[in-house]
């Protein structure tokens, strides 16, 4: 089994060297628990290893993702349109090649496939941050959409991180479905120890 480094060496050791290539991994947790940062590590490691990477952001702007990466010393800007494409689902501008005009599974998949074709053949890393946004107005279709995403994107040789939100009040996932279709689940939790949130 070929494993891809998460970009976090100590975590890789816990999971036998990294994420198996081709896996769909659900990253779940409350807002602010580190899912986006964990995803940025995965992309930065991919770029370091020369892997094509696609990052879909549904909750922050493309500029925000680039700035966050810079805080960790990763220059995503130099890789844009060469080894990295960031698809901005917030902008909804028709003149921006890498934005979505509407947030649907079909449009997201079509844009991701276009990005993959531009970046070239072979295996690639994909982050969808967050997949919960696809289900918010249609929870009854969540299972169908999740299976559809996984089935179609796996054919395009992606190893996928899909983040999903937990409700702060109940600590329950907003979309249990992505967990059901995932090959692996990484849960992020917030805890209080000695009066400090960790």
TrEMBL record:
GO-annotated molecular function: ATP binding
Keyword line: ATP-binding, Nucleotide-binding
Name of the protein this chain belongs to: RecA-like protein
Key word Chaperone present: no
PROSITE patterns in UniProt: KAIC
Start and end residues of each KaiC domain: 2-198
Domain of life: Archaea
SUPFAM superfamilies recorded: P-loop containing nucleoside triphosphate hydrolases
């Amino acid at each position: 089994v070929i494993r891809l480094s998460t970009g976090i060496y100590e975590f890789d050791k816990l999971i036998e060297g990294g994420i198996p290539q081709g896996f769909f991994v659900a990253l779940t947790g409350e807002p602010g628990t580190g899912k986006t940062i964990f995803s940025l590590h995965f992309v930065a490691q991919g770029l370091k290893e020369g892997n094509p990477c696609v990052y879909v952001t549904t909750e922050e702007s493309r500029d925000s993702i680039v700035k966050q990466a810079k805080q960790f010393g990763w220059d995503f800007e130099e890789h844009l349109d060469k080894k990295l494409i960031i698809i901005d689902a917030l902008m909804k501008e028709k003149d921006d090649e890498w934005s979505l005009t509407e947030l649907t599974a079909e449009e997201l998949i079509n844009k991701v496939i276009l990005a993959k074709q531009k970046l070239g053949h072979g295996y690639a890393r994909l982050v969808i941050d967050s997949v919960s946004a696809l289900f918010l107005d249609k929870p009854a279709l969540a299972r169908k959409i999740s299976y559809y995403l996984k089935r179609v994107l796996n054919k395009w040789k992606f190893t996928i991180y899909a983040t999903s939100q937990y409700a702060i009040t109940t600590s329950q996932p907003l979309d249990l479905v992505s967990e059901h279709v995932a090959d692996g689940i990484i849960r992020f939790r917030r805890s209080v120890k000695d009066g400090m949130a960790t």
